[in-house]
């Protein structure tokens, strides 16, 4: 209605590409756009559709108005308005009727009440669609800007309710119960890493009180970032995050879902967090070696992990560690000597981050023969994750031994691993 001929033709072409029109629909569109053969033919088509179509009825009124039949046009507009007063087409009909008769149409009692209520709303309500931070906002910041290897990488998340009313937290509330967080990592001697989004559950409260906040922390070590740093702890790294409150998902050009800001949503970018690296030199290695042989605490565990990665990087292509052969042998011996001193919980943690290296085969042989169920489960997961060949992984001694273990949890994990590896092997041959 009231569009230029060029725009009408373009819209018609697009409609017919999506869904071809039948003869009746084509005739109605011609009558509405003024392309019928004669005004009489257009009126006949519009009269036939006016009883079931508001669009046709308004179109008929416009045609009658152009022919000077103002009373008939007014009756059609009045009928269209009264049949659907609360719709967009009903409002359009009422405005056209007001223009035709030159007099504003008074609001109904219901409309007048609604108009009064709308006028009493704070002006900020009408800005929420473009400025959602007037209602709710959030921040994500690292608790510490610098952390040491294997230490918690805590992010403090704060959600603010800026309104005088409580805001519900739920999948249907003004605050959704999930935040999408994208961590970004930069590590020496590594290519640019693809970020993998993670979901944060904020459903720890039912609502946020008026002008109140919801605060909680999240440890990046529990995500793929922690796995990454567990395998590359020596040279440190730099991390940041982008998070979306009230996210929705759109489809990218590659057809993959992409998180974007939804209704009343916002984005928060954290400050950088740095994981301190080590200046790996012979002097530093000897200092760590001394602590491993003399201390008995969590510091010793971190030192043992760092020492294992120093040994593993002797043969690295990039970022190789230079270490005399006798010092390397001394480090391996110190790790083997320290292993029995650890309690089972400490052993399990160390196995989860210990480096893989042929130089550490003797230590890994001791670890694989450990009888503690927790240590055995961690060993199973580590052994399988390092092996890219499902067939070879299934033949690992620890997997074979796990299938006959007297411990139910170890045996169940080994059976699950065997089944998963079998599926992977079958998929390789498809």
Overview of this protein structure:
With 430 residues, this protein is of the alpha+beta class. The chain folds into 3 domains: 116 residues, Alpha Horseshoe (Serine Threonine Protein Phosphatase 5, Tetratricopeptide repeat); 144 residues, Immunoglobulin-like, CATH 2.60.40; 66 residues, no CATH class. It contains 17 helices and 11 strands. The strands form 3 sheets. Strands 2, 5, 6, 9, 10 and 11 form a 6-stranded mixed sheet that branches. Helix 2 crosses helix 3. The radius of gyration is 35 Å and the shape is elongated. The protein starts with a helix and ends with a helix. 28% of the residues are buried. The model has no long low-confidence stretch (mean pLDDT 84).
Terminal CA distance reads 57 Å
The secondary structure category is alpha+beta
Look up the CATH topology of the largest domain: Immunoglobulin-like
Compute the CA-based radius of gyration: 35 Å
Low-confidence stretches: none
In short:
With 430 residues, the chain is an alpha+beta fold. It is 48% helix and 17% strand.
Keywords:
430 residues; 3 domains; six-stranded mixed β-sheet; alpha+beta; Immunoglobulin-like; Serine Threonine Protein Phosphatase 5, Tetratricopeptide repeat; three-stranded antiparallel β-sheet; 11 strands; 48% helix
Give the topology, please:
Blueprint: H1 5-18, H2 23-33, H3 39-50, H4 54-66, H5 70-83, H6 88-101, H7 109-120, E1 136-142, E2 146-147, E3 154-161, E4 167-168, E5 178-186, E6 198-201, E7 207-208, E8 213-219, H8 224-231, E9 237-251, E10 257-269, E11 273-275, H9 282-294, H10 298-312, H11 325-338, H12 344-353, H13 361-368, H14 373-386, H15 390-394, H16 397-403, H17 408-428
Parallel strand pairs: 2-11
Antiparallel strand pairs: 1-3, 3-8, 4-7, 5-6, 5-9, 9-10, 9-11
């Amino acid at each position: 209605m009231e569009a230029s001929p060029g725009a009408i033709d373009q819209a018609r072409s697009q409609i017919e590409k999506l869904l071809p029109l039948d003869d009746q629909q084509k005739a109605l569109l011609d009558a509405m756009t003024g392309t019928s053969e004669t005004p009489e033919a257009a009126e006949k088509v519009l009269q036939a559709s006016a009883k079931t179509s508001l669009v046709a009825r308004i179109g008929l009124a416009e045609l009658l108005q152009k022919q000077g039949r103002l009373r008939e046009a007014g009756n059609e507009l009045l009928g269209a308005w009264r049949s659907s007063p609360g719709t967009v087409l009903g409002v359009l009909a009422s405005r056209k009727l007001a223009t035709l008769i030159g007099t504003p149409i008074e609001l109904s009692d219901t409309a007048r009440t609604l108009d009064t209520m709308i006028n009493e709303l704070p002006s900020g309500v009408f800005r929420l669609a473009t400025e959602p931070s007037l209602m709710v906002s959030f921040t994500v910041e690292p608790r510490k800007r610098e952390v040491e290897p294997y230490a918690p990488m805590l992010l403090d998340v704060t959600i603010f309710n800026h309104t005088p009313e409580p805001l519900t937290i739920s999948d249907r509330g003004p605050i959704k119960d999930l935040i999408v967080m994208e961590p970004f990592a930069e590590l020496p001697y590594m290519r640019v890493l693809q970020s993998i989004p993670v979901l944060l559950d904020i459903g720890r409260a039912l609502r946020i009180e008026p002008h109140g906040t919801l605060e909680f922390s999240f440890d990046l070590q529990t995500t793929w970032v922690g796995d990454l740093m567990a395998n590359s702890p020596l040279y440190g790294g730099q991390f940041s995050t982008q998070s979306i409150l009230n996210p929705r998902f759109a489809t990218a050009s590659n057809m993959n879902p992409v998180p974007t800001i939804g209704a009343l949503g916002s984005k928060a970018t954290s400050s950088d967090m740095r994981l301190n690296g080590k200046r790996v030199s012979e002097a530093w290695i000897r200092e760590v070696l001394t602590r491993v042989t003399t201390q008995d605490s969590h510091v010793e565990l971190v030192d043992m992990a760092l020492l294992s990665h120093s040994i593993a990087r002797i043969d690295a292509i990039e970022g190789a560690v230079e270490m005399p052969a006798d010092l390397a042998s001394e480090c391996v011996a110190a790790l083997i000597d320290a292993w029995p001193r650890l309690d089972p919980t400490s052993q399990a943690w160390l196995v989860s981050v210990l480096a893989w290296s042929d130089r550490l085969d003797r230590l890994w042989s001791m670890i694989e023969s450990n009888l503690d169920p927790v240590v055995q489960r961690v060993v199973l997961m580590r052994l399988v994750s390092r092996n890219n060949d499902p067939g070879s992984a299934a033949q690992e001694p620890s997997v074979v031994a796990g299938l006959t273990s007297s411990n139910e949890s170890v045996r169940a994990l080994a059976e699950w691993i065997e089944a998963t590896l079998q599926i992977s092997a079958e998929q390789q041959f498809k």
